UniProtKB/TrEMBL annotation:
It comes from Spirosoma agri. InterPro entries: ATP-NAD_kinase_N, Diacylglycerol_kinase_cat_dom, Lipid_Phosphate_FormReg, NAD/diacylglycerol_kinase_sf, YegS/DAGK_C. One of its GO terms (molecular function) is ATP binding. GO terms for cellular component: plasma membrane. Residues 2-135 form the DAGKc domain. SMART domains: DAGKc. This is Diacylglycerol kinase. Keywords: ATP-binding, Kinase, Nucleotide-binding, Transferase. Pfam families: DAGK_cat, YegS_C.
Length: 292
């Protein structure tokens, strides 16, 4: 008798603003749909940070064909990092507040439709990247965006309104940073390494980023007068930031960034501090299968 192909769904109970009841309904819908398609499905709810990586890692070793990450970009990152360079494909079911990777890849934002896509879609190869060994799939960054990621992590409530409030307050407190990027001195407002084109919520830092070209877009925003902030924000959401005189981009496969003192960074929105003041970024071409 042929063995059924296994599929695992990993659910972060804390992701986004969906209730526990909505997540339970989503879990039931996944099990029903997967069984109807002839899979042997399983669902696990995460109990701690890092749990999704442990579960996905075990699934790869068991030869599970598809692993669905049901959560925000943090859960997707934790799951995807264990699937890199394996034949197990990632299904994205976005229920977070930004959903950058899902939006870039055109995954449905309706969770039921995303479940269906993850179960019926075909595996497509994409790139991933690392900053000081921390995997990222969407963007990693330094400067203002890292400053905001650190401030946002301190907020008791998640979601877009909190993010906008945090970024607005941070804008007035933040001072541009002097970086040494591959031996060139630059004072920048922000520095992004983009695998996907957006941070989430359709905020496009790298409008032309291609997630499967074996390259990262290194996007720099130089310091600008406060009165230019409105136009830059409009361009960010209008997918035209690359037309601003304050934006500069180039395709790279690796970069070394240094700054004085501890370096604040983020990887897929997750705030991190590099005490040694040095960040090494590199692309891992064609390292992940995603179900699209
Ligand atoms: N049971 C758990 N208890 C505490 N933290 C958890 C648990 N399961 C997962 N996490 C952590 O929650 C973090 C945030 O999850 P995730 O990014 O999916 O949701 P979110 O913050 O609502 O979404 P977004 O990133 O889009 O804002 C993950 O990085 C993960 O480490």
């Amino acid at each position: 008798m042929a063995t059924l192909s296994s599929v695992l769904a990993i659910i972060n109970p804390l992701s986004g603003t969906t209730t526990a009841d909505q997540k339970a309904l989503l879990s039931d819908a996944f099990l029903r749909k997967a069984e109807s398609l002839g899979y042997a499905p399983d669902v696990v709810i995460t109990t701690h940070p890092g749990h999704a990586t442990e579960l996905a890692d075990a699934a790869v070793r068991r030869g599970v064909s598809r692993v669905l990450a049901i959560g925000g970009d943090g859960t997707i990152n934790e799951t995807a990092q264990a699937l890199r360079r394996s034949s197990t494909a990632l299904g994205i079911v976005p229920i977070g507040s930004g959903n950058g990777l899902a939006r870039h890849l055109g995954v449905p934002l309706n969770p039921l439709k995303a479940v269906e896509r993850a179960l019926t879609g075909r595996p497509v190869i994409i790139d991933s990247a690392e900053i000081n060994g921390h995997p990222f799939f969407c963007t990693a960054g330094l400067g203002f965006e890292a400053y905001v990621a650190h401030a946002f992590a301190q907020q008791p409530v998640r979601g877009l309104p909190t993010y906008v409030r945090t970024a607005f307050r941070a804008f007035w407190a933040y001072k541009p940073v002097r970086f040494l990027i591959d031996d060139k001195q630059k004072e920048l407002f922000s520095l992004t390494f983009a695998n996907a084109g957006q941070f989430g919520n359709n905020a496009w830092m790298a409008p032309k980023a291609n997630i499967a070209d074996g390259k990262l877009e290194q996007c720099e925003i130089r310091p600008f007068p406060a009165q230019a902030a409105g136009m830059l924000t409009w361009r960010l959401f209008n997918k035209s930031l690359d037309q601003s005189a304050y934006w500069r981009g180039q395709s790279v496969t690796k970069a070394i960034v240094q700054a004085e003192g501890p370096l604040l960074i983020h990887a897929d929105g997750e705030p991190l501090t590099l005490s040694e003041g040095r960040a090494e970024v590199r692309i891992l071409p064609g390292s992940l299968l995603v179900l699209l």
